[in-house]
Amino acid sequence: MNRLSRGLYECEFIKWKCRGRLIFGEGDSYNTPGSTTVVRRHRDMPARPPSNKKKSRKAVLPNHSTRRRFQRRLLQWYGEHGRDLPWRKTSDPYHILVSEVMLQQTQVDRVIPKYHEFLERYPSFEDLAEAPVADVKKTWYPLGYNIRPERLHGIACETVERYGGKLPNDADELLSFKGIGRYTAGAIRSFAFNEDAPILDTNVIRVLHRVFVAEGDPKAQKAVLWELSEALIPSGKGYDFNQAIMDFGAMVCTARDPYCLLCPMKSICKTYPFLSDID
Questions:
Q1: Whole-angstrom Cα distance, residue 267 to residue 262?
Q2: Which residues face 133 on adjacent strands?
């Protein structure tokens, strides 16, 4: 019997033993046929399957001084270079929701004209809820990802039915909507209700990981980055801070060829100077 056949035979023998419900007492043992391996099991100790769960990495938050410098420099940069976007001129939760759903995996320049057209056609939750889904999808075209208008329509219907047409600001209630995840809930709370709620989109992930972490795969460290995002928000300035860090990731700390020499964070950035093979 070769090694492979012997291994398979031993596995089948063990499974047969288990089906026979043999109970091994303390110190009992058995040898598999053709093997000198002894298997022991303590009484009343259930077999523990191997765990595939990765240990979560704990966030190492920057010290107070570094945190303040990051906040101050980011907000100063935003005051000089922040983008002029139409959804930043309103705090209407419906308008904020529409913009956030449209901006998912779609460039800002493509969203702006469609944002105006969509709100002109469906100016409120009630108007959107009353419209046929097919019409909503036609209005959405050509933004793509057509599951988004369907989910937006579903959120509108649920908002009208459960909340009288007013989107709630409670985090758990927002997350109960199908189509609203943790980022969108944070964005609504921050931009519509002016709360210090953290957000974590692609741009924010890139900025936080480069400046404060610099090691490992950022996509595998979202728990750490969520903690950082929340810890860095200056009290009472969640709106500006969140808008600023998104703009900073889109305009300075870009995915490729970031403007490191002009970056106001280079003295505290753990990735400076950026090398393309790191990210």
A1: 11
A2: none
Taking only the tens place, the pLDDT of each residue in 80-118 is 999 999 999 999 999 999 999 999 999 999 999 999 999
Using DSSP bridges, classify how beta strands 38-40 and 29-31 pair: parallel, antiparallel or unpaired. Answer: antiparallel
Q: How many residues comprise the chain?
A: 279
Residue 177's SS3 state is coil
Domains contained in the chain, CATH given: 59-84+196-279 (1.10.1670.10), 92-193 (1.10.340.30)
Using CA atoms, how far residue 121 sits from 79, 133, 138, 139, in Å, is 33, 13, 11, 8
Q: Kindly state the tokens that stand for 113.
A: 């004209």
| DSSP structural state of residue 145 | -
| Catalytic residue (one of 100, 150, 158, 227) | 100
**Model pTM score:** 0.77
Residue-wise pLDDT tens digits, 202-257: 999 999 999 999 999 999 999 999 999 999 999 999 999 999 999 999 999 999 99
Residue 230 annotated as catalytic: no
Q: Which residue reads 């609504």 in tokens?
A: 188
Rounded to whole angstroms, how far apart are CA atoms 258 and 271? Answer: 11
